[in-house]
Amino acid sequence: MAPPPDDPAGAGHPASDGTQPFRKPRLEAAIGWLAACGFLFLAMVIVVVGVQSRERAITGAQDRARAAVRVLAEHAARLFDAADLLVEYAAQESAGRPWDEVARSRALWDKLNAQRARLPFLDAVWLNDATGLLRLTTAAFPTPYSDASDREAFLFHLRNAQQGRPVDQPHIGPRIIGRVTNKATFLLSRRLSEPDGGFRGIASVTIDPSYLSGFYKELDLPHEPVTILVRADDLDVLVREPDGSAEPARLSDLTRRSILAQQGGGVARDDTAIVAHRRVDSWPVHVVVQLELAPVLETWRRLIAPYAGLAAAAAMALAALSVFGFRQAGGARQVQRELERRVRERTASLEKTVGERDAALAQKDLLMREANHRIKNSLQVVSSLLSLQGQAVGEPRLNDHLLEAGRRVQAIADIHRLLYRVDDVHFIPFHDYLTELCRELERSARSDGGNWRLELVVEPVEVPTDHAVQLGLLANELVMNAIKHAYRPLAVPMAATGDPSWAEPDTHKATNVIFVGLRRSGDVLQLIVGDRGIGLPTDFDWRRNRSLGMRLIHTLSKQLGATLTVENTSPGVRFTIGLPQPTSGDGDSDGVRTSG
């Protein structure tokens, strides 16, 4: 007899041998369990993808804030360096003059005002005597009455003088309202000293916060961040953008804790904000970029919304599949094929997304190269203009200054020329740059007269882009210093030194030889420039020399954290720049890589 319809395949009836047969699961139950597992899996995927994408959005915002403060810190360092040079220039021009003469000197006022006009972020130059009385300012002539004896900057330098601290210490004051200009500003100042070391007064410049606010406003940063410039010692806010109030708002507790915990710079976040900060090189100020977390999460929600809709659609499809599966088992196979088709479409979509991302990265690299190419062209134009201006000026000394400035600008342009040629923009082959620079200086020197020869012994070394400009300018200054001064007033015959390797057997004219070396010694990169010329006077102190070239060498060495050694080699002199750098072979931008 056939089994009843409700018990297909004889399920539930004992077999002929008395054992219970295997019960097949009902198809509906199997589909129900699969549907439940599918819904559970979909919920887990939504949660995992949502959490991970949210964290990626926050991490991306942190990375962009960190990159922004790095750029802003470099901009602030260049700005303060330029302002400090003007302060030193004002101190030099007023040194040795009685204060009454300084106050009456229209010529000195014109010189300082001309220099100030070249720096649009500065309001004025100020010279105050030892009592705090204002003696000269580019804000007005004749000088209006003003007493700065109660200002922090004046008291800071007076206190340092009374305690016998070194003179070479610039100071950045708090944000104030100028008594003469009646504008919000802050001071960068230096102490003035009498010949006997006594306190003579201060020289200072006022920096316009609105200039910095305008610069911060023009930056294309996402999520409308708050950009802040703050003093490092007391966390006093100097500039805040955006901030419509006359007195900038104080730092948030999160920002204060982050700066105090990470003096060099870092990133912190809480439930409401992301804060990235970085200390400006060699200056007691921090740049802060503060992002509210709400706009970041709102952007994330907009990006995740299509995926949530896709998940909802998938859930509906799964429900429809379950209902249909209950009705007809054959429909399950059709749905399976449909799901496979959707997987293929999603895979193709993901592959397209990856391809678009790779194309965007390639476009970014192309834009970086184009930017460096345009910077190089602009700097070459500036160098050419300086050279042409030098040729048009009848004053030989001014002509020399303009030509030297043009060479310095060209040295920087050559760095950017290498940057758009190399594959890795984080490093440049400094040996190639140094060789080309020396050959150009040699050709220039020979064209001006004289039998010059530059002997190069350079190792293949790649240096970080952040160090390349300073090293290039140091090499340019040292070689030009040797060309200008090593063999004056008369070149020393090389054969007279007793070293036949320096002699020129084929001519009676002495050869002016300059040696340039580049090598690694342990963890130190050494740049060496030497000659066999007249040498330096026994009482020469390069640290106190006030020539622009030596000041540039001293300043650039300090910026790099390098050591400068000057040795009389009898005959001649040798300059050695020692830059401590750990060897890096994995693309770390803080290290030097050895090529080849």
From TrEMBL:
<feature type="transmembrane region" description="Helical">
    <location>
        <begin position="30"/>
        <end position="51"/>
    </location>
</feature>
<keyword id="KW-0418">Kinase</keyword>
<dbReference type="InterPro" id="IPR036890">
    <property type="entry name" value="HATPase_C_sf"/>
</dbReference>
<keyword id="KW-0812">Transmembrane</keyword>
<keyword id="KW-0808">Transferase</keyword>
<feature type="region of interest" description="Disordered">
    <location>
        <begin position="1"/>
        <end position="21"/>
    </location>
</feature>
<dbReference type="InterPro" id="IPR011495">
    <property type="entry name" value="Sig_transdc_His_kin_sub2_dim/P"/>
</dbReference>
<keyword id="KW-0597">Phosphoprotein</keyword>
<keyword id="KW-1133">Transmembrane helix</keyword>
<feature type="transmembrane region" description="Helical">
    <location>
        <begin position="307"/>
        <end position="326"/>
    </location>
</feature>
<keyword id="KW-0067">ATP-binding</keyword>
<feature type="compositionally biased region" description="Low complexity">
    <location>
        <begin position="8"/>
        <end position="18"/>
    </location>
</feature>
<keyword id="KW-0547">Nucleotide-binding</keyword>
<feature type="domain" description="Histidine kinase/HSP90-like ATPase">
    <location>
        <begin position="466"/>
        <end position="583"/>
    </location>
</feature>
<protein>
    <recommendedName>
        <fullName>histidine kinase</fullName>
        <ecNumber>2.7.13.3</ecNumber>
    </recommendedName>
</protein>
<dbReference type="InterPro" id="IPR003594">
    <property type="entry name" value="HATPase_dom"/>
</dbReference>
<keyword id="KW-0472">Membrane</keyword>
<dbReference type="Pfam" id="PF07568">
    <property type="entry name" value="HisKA_2"/>
</dbReference>
